[in-house]
Amino acid sequence: MRQNYLNRLAINWLAYFPLRPLFVLSLSTVFGLSVNTGVTAAPSEQVLVVGEYEVLIQKFKSDLTPVLIKIDNSTQSQIKQPLARVLWLPSEYGILPEEKLLAKQLAAFGIESWFVDYYEALFLAPTPKAVDQIPPAWTQKILALAKQDGLPLWVIAPNKAAQTAVRGLHALLQTPQQNLGLILVNPNLYLNTPAPGLEASYWPQVKQLNMPISILQAELSPWRWRLSSLANYFEQGGSDVFTLLQKQVRDRFYFRPDSVVIENELTKQLANKILQAMLLQRPYLEKIRQVAPLAIVTSQVVKQARSIELQDYSGQQNLPLSLESAQGNLIHLDAYKGKVVLVNFWASWCPPCVHEMPSMNRLKSHFKDQPFEILAVNLGEDRAKIEGFLRSHPVNFPILMDQQGTAVKQWKVFAYPSSYLIDKQGKIRFALFGATEWDLAGHLEKIESLLAQEPVIE
Prior knowledge:
The protein is of the alpha/beta class. It has helices at residues 2-15, 28-31, 97-107, 118-122, 128-132, 136-146, 161-172, 205-208, 227-236, 261-268, 270-281, 351-366, 383-392, 406-410, 441-451; strands spanning 35-36, 41-50, 53-62, 67-71, 74-78, 84-88, 111-117, 153-158, 180-185, 212-220, 240-250, 311-312, 322-325, 330-332, 340-346, 372-379, 399-402, 418-422, 428-433.
């Protein structure tokens, strides 16, 4: 069954490029097909001068030796020219060996890959802040160079490299373009990590971009609940959007040092997933696309709102929270008026969430004789998963189940863990994005100050 599917995918890949010489090498590397070749993909280098800077481009090309491939008893002669080109943009984690391995696998399908090292040119280490320093004009110039010979071009942008991609593509699309697609992997397109309770803003280019776009989003991520929202933003500019949810894996699944078996298995399939994304976009590539200039140019300096301390909360109040507990009881936040409540959003697949739970147990024990409660809202996991987790990580506070992501969206949770401290009147007073040790003196002082306040009788 799998072999038949892979055969069909390979045939479809060939069929979608009727005007290009067929160049599909070492298909057995990825799909296990019968291929007569001994080809390897060796990288070459080119230096692009941009102003006073020199940007290194590393290229993974297949050997130009003609080969023969056999699919379903038919033989097709393969010649030298690549079918397509991919430009890999570096994320805040830099150029990864796992991505170069994917490039070698894609080379087996006649796909040439370019890697561009912005950080070396800027004399910066790869970090989220370094991504903000990449000039869109650099990406625009590299895109123009990659399109000079008319090959279909796809940009692959993981994580925060999505921001580099949309800014550079928007600049390029000021003039009409075609044969250009975008593949985003777990994209972070937010201008900032917002203060707790506030809505995050996308880069303005998102709403104006006009091109075929595929989004490969990990399921075990708070961003998966905003996947449809992101797709809608892209569609407002005329983009054709395909969303591909990657089941049971976390963000960065293909290069996590703590990856689990299912993430390793999906990593082995990632080249196939990229090919599928290309095939979905192929009918839309020939359409001529163009965008209008931005009315307001956003600064490249992005402010972050993360902190390890509880911060004053300025977002929406009276947020609803009514969920079933892991024990099957319906719990309403309104029923806890008269108590100080810590609402914590977490998941068992989130290491920082798990790390802070012992301190939450200690916090609950510290205030066991006070009107204080912790409500821990789990993100989208089923009851069996939560029960298994609690057997090895017992807690002394209720676990609520948000299987549809309703509370996550209503409370504007953009990072895990996220916590909200609520006073006796039910007003959210403080909030925190990120893990902490909950029995630190600063946290205890804030909770004690709220416990000392008398509830207002209405």
